[in-house]
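During the second year of the project, the team shifted from modelling isolated chains to modelling whole assemblies. The rationale, set out in the original proposal, was that interfaces cannot be judged from single-chain predictions alone. As a representative example for this report, we include one of the complexes processed in the last quarter. Its constituent sequences, exactly as entered into the pipeline, are reproduced here:
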Amino acid sequence: MKPDTIAVHGGFTGDGVSGAAAVPVYQTVSYAHKTAQELADVFAGKTPGYIYTRIANPTTTALEVRLAELEDGIACIATSSGMAAVTSAVMGLLRAGDRIVAATGIFGGTVSLFETTLKRFGIETTFVDVADTRNFQEALTEKTKLVFVETIGNPRMDVPDIPAIAELAHKANIPLVVDNTVTTPVLFRPSRFGADIVVHSTSKFINGHGTAIGGAIIDTGNYDWRKGAFDDIRQLSGRVGQLAFLVHLRNLIYRDLGGCPAPMNSFLMLQGLESLPVRMLRHCENARRLAQFLQAHPKVSWVNYPALADNRFHARVSELFAGYGGGLLTFGLGGRREVFKFIDSLRLAKNMANLGDAKTLVIHPASTIFHEFSADEQRGMGVTEEMVRVSVGIEDFEDIRADFERAIDKSL
Amino acid sequence: MNIVVNGQETNITDGLTISELLVEENVKMPQMVSVELNGQILKRSEFDQTVLKDDDKVEFLYFMGGGNGAD
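Output from the structure prediction step:
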């Protein structure tokens, strides 16, 4: 099946009972088994079956199979949020004393996890600018156990050279984890470019309607856990082969941390995936047109959208994402006062901390998502006072343009 | 034709694909099974195209939990 067909049909061929065409919501905590022996066999892993929804659930399984197929991976674990996906993946690999090399421009929540929360458990991170891939090489030490990047950093809108970073991670025998939230498998399949683990916040473009929080971890099959740098996973691979990392998560880290999705949320993600290929192209088209409109506007000081011809990452976007720049852009408008006035004057676009919704969303990152960071730290993360971040929706472009034009005029 | 399925010598119809093997062997919960062929996990997109050969070693793996920790 082609990806657009997998998005609609993957992971479900019927419930075998009712003929239901949509994946049923298995709103249950646990699963009854006919005999004591059968449940004992399921616990022992001798026979397949469900035990408890914190570990696995049939609605969630359908989502996991569909996402694994879309990402061209070997298997997937769905989580309660994108942060639960990153936390489970990273804590499943690292121990106290290990180090991470991560891109500077990644999501603020992930920065906080790496810089503050994981530090409390003895895991430290070196952040590097993705513009020059040599920064990654220079940051690697013997203690580095994983490299973490996003396909398009947000809000810096920087694009790492993923194939080159994968190559240097593999030379050091460590996995590359790629957060594919903002590009989705519609624009980019990291598995084809050397990524070992793909993580998602499915709350964004995959859900597509701002109705449920979720995340996912996909093993692409590229990293050979049998020869890998992780003793416990290598040991497990003797029994379960290349599935070792995800079995290790399912049966230990993910199970113990408790970051499972609600079945209803898995249903909403499955529904979102069905229209994702259509929506994603519209997000990209509207974002490109809005970027061009803003670039030509005399009151706008700058526009950052990686698919623009004069953007410093244009060549990488062309190579990796077939020229699509995604649905996010940032632009500069005066200072904080003007940005606030602009946001307050919008009628269509919503002012909120989310992205990837069908609706156009705006936010002033410096006073919201990044408010806990100092001005210096913000600058390092590419956040400035005059910056507006836009998640461009799928409305008629002329309505978005008119809304922005009116609000910009009122702001200055 | 003989292959090894989960460690057991098994006689199967010649020229079966992985998808057809799942049906012929009446594999439980085929939607959820992961298939390892000669030590490599197959991607689901490969199930229809991968034709089995004599002496192939196939493992059906389930990835749904088990072990300790369920209430």
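The CA atoms of residues 20 and 48 of chain B lie 8 Å apart. The domain at 2-62 of chain B is CATH 3.10.20.30 (Ubiquitin-like (UB roll)).
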